[in-house]
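ARCHIVE CARD
CATEGORY: sequence design from structure
SOURCE FIELD: tokenized fold
FIELD CONTENT:
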């Protein structure tokens, strides 16, 4: 990688956002020569990223790029492509470069920044940012370019990012993180599924939407979802299937939950994870108030906003 791209320039507002100051401060510093700048043919100010970072270091200003030296221009460009074009390709390539070099701290820092970027909604972060990276990691493992331990370390890094984000959000909401009368959901990954990043993303989404979530974690026997649902009067149960689920996995989950279903405590069932694309609709038949296969945070959010589970909870 090149240390700096001398052609990479920022607008005054971008420099202000990077430094955490008002654009007028950037203008003042530029006019005073403290931050070198240029003018375009149209009279717009441009600042080289390297000059902005040199100024920040001289002033002791920590920026989102501070943890990434000497890869600041690569991180900036990747983040800008996510923000402006909705493309995670460069960010994933950058992340995979760090994974193969064993630079997991940089990876964690990158996703910490991405998770808190106000221009990147949670569902995009989870569905495209996290899942997209894990797909590339899985491919690298299948091709022999990563060891099992390395794949596990990436999964753990993403888990830490999600748990840190959740902890911060709960702290911002208050002591309990939810209000009295909030609708209740049970979320987790069924037995045979050691992966629970998708379940963690669902947990975050539901809590942002005002749900009280009982999180069961990975590799949970299906009947335990039913037991917790009955004990908590949950209006929604979200079960993450194994990454490469078969029709039999879906059939078993629906059958077991149907056997434990209590009509006096109705709930909607959402199946996620590796749901087969050609699933027979008959496999989803059961006593539930509603049942759907929802393969992403975005599809779950859309379903909830359109009324899925809402008649039970009155939350939306």
């Amino acid at each position: 990688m090149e240390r700096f791209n001398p052609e990479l320039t920022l607008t005054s507002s971008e420099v202000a956002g990077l430094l955490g100051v008002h654009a007028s401060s950037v203008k003042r510093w530029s006019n005073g020569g403290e931050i070198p700048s240029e003018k375009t043919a149209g009279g717009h100010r441009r600042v080289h990223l390297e000059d902005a970072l040199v100024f920040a270091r001289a002033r002791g200003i920590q920026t989102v790029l501070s943890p990434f030296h000497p890869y600041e221009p690569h991180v900036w460009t990747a983040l800008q492509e996510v923000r402006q074009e909705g493309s995670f390709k460069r960010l994933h390539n950058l992340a995979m470069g760090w994974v193969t070099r064993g630079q997991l701290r940089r990876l964690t820092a990158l996703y910490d920044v991405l998770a808190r970027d106000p221009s990147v909604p949670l569902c995009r972060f989870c569905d495209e940012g996290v899942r997209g990276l894990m797909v590339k990691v899985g491919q690298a493992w299948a091709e022999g370019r990563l060891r099992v331990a390395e794949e596990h370390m990436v999964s753990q890094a993403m888990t830490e990012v999600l748990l840190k984000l959740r902890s911060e959000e709960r702290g911002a909401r208050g002591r309990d993180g939810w209000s009295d009368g909030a609708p209740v959901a049970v979320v987790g990954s069924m037995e045979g599924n050691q992966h629970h990043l998708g379940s963690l993303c669902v947990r975050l989404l539901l809590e942002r939407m005002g749900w009280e979530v009982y999180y069961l974690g990975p590799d949970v026997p299906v009947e335990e979802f039913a037991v917790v649902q009955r004990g908590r009067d949950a209006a929604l149960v979200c079960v993450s299937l194994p990454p490469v689920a078969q029709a039999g996995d879906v059939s078993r989950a629906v059958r077991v939950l149907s056997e434990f279903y209590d009509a006096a405590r109705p709930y909607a069932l959402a199946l996620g994870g590796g749901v087969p694309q050609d699933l027979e609709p008959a496999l989803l038949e059961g006593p539930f108030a509603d049942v759907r296969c929802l393969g992403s945070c975005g599809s779950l959010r859309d379903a909830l906003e359109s009324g899925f589970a809402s008649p039970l909870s009155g939350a939306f």
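CARD ANNOTATION: DSSP finds 13 helices and eight strands in the chain. The first strand starts at residue 9 and ends at 11.
SHELF: design records, drawer C
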